[in-house]
């Protein structure tokens, strides 16, 4: 399974992504992740969620190979709807979500952590939104929650990445630790939250979402509209083919 969910006795629910080789989720994977987070919020025994990943990176976004190997637009529409559902599920989860980020966190990964309540990262972690390389737009809404406006625009237009250590100065990443200490660091923060009265924490999550200056769901949906336009123009398909061909060449070496 690409997504698993385990509730510990202390009320910490651990949701893990595991989709080798790079945790690029399929359409079903995104919906499964959304379902796991929705379930966590509904379960009153859950006090906090730790969102983590197995493998060499946290999340590489959508599975472009699935998209290019699917006839018509079903995979494209599914990926857009799945990402929207998963990002929304993180943001609207009734309890805080602590993201434990290792290695690469790009594209859809930024959408997930940008909507999380707390981010802990390993010292090899980095973030980026390479969507422009594949003829898509999206996750600027979420990158804007990690870095200041001009930095977000630079990262977005250039498809550059930024190290987790550099995000600490902006306050978006709580701390950076060695890779083998990441789970422990995330659990430490989660344990502090889980020790509080769950009723208060759930009320606090709703209150903080209520005073958020930006509606992240509408903002991301607006971005997706431009992705649809680029697909209708044929630009996105052309760039995805180039990307898929490049990745296949790398695998054959």
From TrEMBL:
SUPFAM superfamilies: ClpP/crotonase. Keywords: Lipid metabolism, Lyase. InterPro entries: ClpP/crotonase-like_dom_sf, Enoyl-CoA_hydra/iso. CDD domains: crotonase-like. The keyword DNA repair does not apply. Belongs to the enoyl-CoA hydratase/isomerase family. This is Enoyl-CoA hydratase family protein.
């Amino acid at each position: 399974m690409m997504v698993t969910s385990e509730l510990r006795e202390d009320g910490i629910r651990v949701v893990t992504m595991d989709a080798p080789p790079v945790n690029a989720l399929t359409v079903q994977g995104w919906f499964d992740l959304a379902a796991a987070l929705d379930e966590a919020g509904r379960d009153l025994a859950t006090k906090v969620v730790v969102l983590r990943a197995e493998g060499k990176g946290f999340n590489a976004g959508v599975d472009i190979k699935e998209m290019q190997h699917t006839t018509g637009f079903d995979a494209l529409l599914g990926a857009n709807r799945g990402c929207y559902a998963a990002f929304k599920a993180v943001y609207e989860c009734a309890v805080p979500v602590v993201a434990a980020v290792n290695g690469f966190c790009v594209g859809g990964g930024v959408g997930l952590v940008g909507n999380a309540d707390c981010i802990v990262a390993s010292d090899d972690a980095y973030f980026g939104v390479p969507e422009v390389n594949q003829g898509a737009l999206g996750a600027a809404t979420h990158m804007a929650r990690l870095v200041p406006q001009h930095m977000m625009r630079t990262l977005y237009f250039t498809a550059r990445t930024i190290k987790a250590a550099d995000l600490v100065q902006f306050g978006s990443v709580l701390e950076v630790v060695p890779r083998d200490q990441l789970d422990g660091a995330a659990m430490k923060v989660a344990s502090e939250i889980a020790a509080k009265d769950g009723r208060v924490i759930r009320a606090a999550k709703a209150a903080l979402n209520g005073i958020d200056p930006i509606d992240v769901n509408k903002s991301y949906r607006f971005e997706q509209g431009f992705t649809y336009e680029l697909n209708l123009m044929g630009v996105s398909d052309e760039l995805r083919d180039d990307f898929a061909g490049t990745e296949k060449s790398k695998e054959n070496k």
